[in-house]
Amino acid sequence: MTRTFDRLQAIDALRGLVILIMMLDHVRETFYLHHQVTDPMVIADTEGFLFFSRTLAHLCAPVFVILTGLSAYLYQAKYNSLTKTREFLLKRGFFLIFLELVVINFAWTGQFPPDVIYLQVIWAIGLSMVALSLLIGFSKKWLWIISLFIIFGHNLLEKISFVDMPLLQNFWFIFYERGWIELGGIRLRTSYPVLPWIGIITLGYCIGSRLFDSKQESHNRNIALLSIGVISISLFFILRFINLYGDQAWSTMPSLLETIMSFFNLTKYPPSLLFTLFNVGVGFILLALLNKVQNKNWVKPLIVFGSVPMFFYIVHLFVLKALYAISVAIWGTTHGQYFGVNHVITLWLITIILSVLLYPLILKFSEFKHKNKQIPFLKYL
Question: Which of 91, 140, 259, 368 has its CA 20 to 30 A from that of 184?
Answer without folding.
Answer: 91
